[in-house]
């Protein structure tokens, strides 16, 4: 089954969850989904879930977190880099994987190449993605993108320019919605080219 982009958008709160409460408030107000990464152990994962996280991400697959997430309301998305890692994570129970670091591996072209053998596995593109590339990633098969650095710019964070973060968040949501609508419009109609018996 071909995976499709999910409704809504999320922002990845990277690091050790020590993020200014107002920043989290802005993200929740706009996006309604709170996601935490980078989570590297089961203890931090549980703390994030208790804080209200619906998604957890790691740069690699952490088996303890994946095991704990089974049956949980929070979705754990492990990081993968190679085809082998994608298949292994999926086989271990991951419903979605995060391709990281995608820009170093080839960016949009790498996602496009992975989609061919792994069209049944939902993949999130992560690392080095700018807002203007959202459409390209989704068009080439990414179910979603991580935009931490693109939205939580270092200068804006250092100077607590929350209005800028708010504007970038809104722009990201707009670009995602445009990309999803464009993809839905461009999806080909399925035709049956099978040849039946002839008389």
From TrEMBL:
Pfam families: Aldolase
CDD domains in alphabetical order: KDPG_aldolase (cd00452)
UniProt KW keywords: Carbohydrate metabolism, Lyase
GO molecular function, one term: lyase activity
Gene3D superfamilies tied to this protein: Aldolase class I
InterPro entries, alphabetized: Aldlse_KDPG_KHG, Aldolase_TIM
Pathway given in the UniProt record: Carbohydrate acid metabolism
Subunit text: Homotrimer.
UniProt family annotation: Belongs to the KHG/KDPG aldolase family.
Protein name: Uncharacterized protein
Species for this entry: Rhododendron simsii (Sims's rhododendron)
């Amino acid at each position: 089954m071909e995976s499709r982009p999910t409704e809504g958008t999320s922002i990845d709160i990277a690091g050790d969850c020590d993020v200014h409460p107002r920043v989290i408030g802005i993200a929740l107000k706009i996006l309604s989904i709170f996601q935490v990464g980078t989570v590297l152990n089961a203890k931090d994962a549980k703390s994030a879930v208790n804080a209200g996280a619906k998604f957890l991400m790691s740069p690699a697959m952490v088996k303890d977190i994946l095991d704990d997430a089974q049956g949980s309301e929070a979705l754990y998305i492990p990081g993968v880099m190679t085809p082998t890692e994608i298949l292994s994570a999926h086989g271990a129970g991951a419903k979605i994987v995060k391709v990281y670091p995608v820009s170093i591996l080839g960016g949009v072209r790498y996602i496009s190449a992975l989609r061919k053998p792994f069209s049944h596995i939902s993949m999130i593109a992560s690392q080095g993605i700018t807002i203007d590339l959202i459409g390209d990633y989704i068009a080439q098969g990414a179910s979603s993108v991580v935009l931490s650095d693109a939205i939580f710019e270092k200068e804006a964070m250092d100077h607590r320019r929350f209005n800028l973060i708010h504007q970038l968040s809104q722009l990201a949501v707009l670009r995602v919605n445009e990309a999803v609508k464009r993809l839905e419009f461009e999806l080909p109609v399925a035709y049956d080219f099978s040849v039946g018996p002839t008389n």
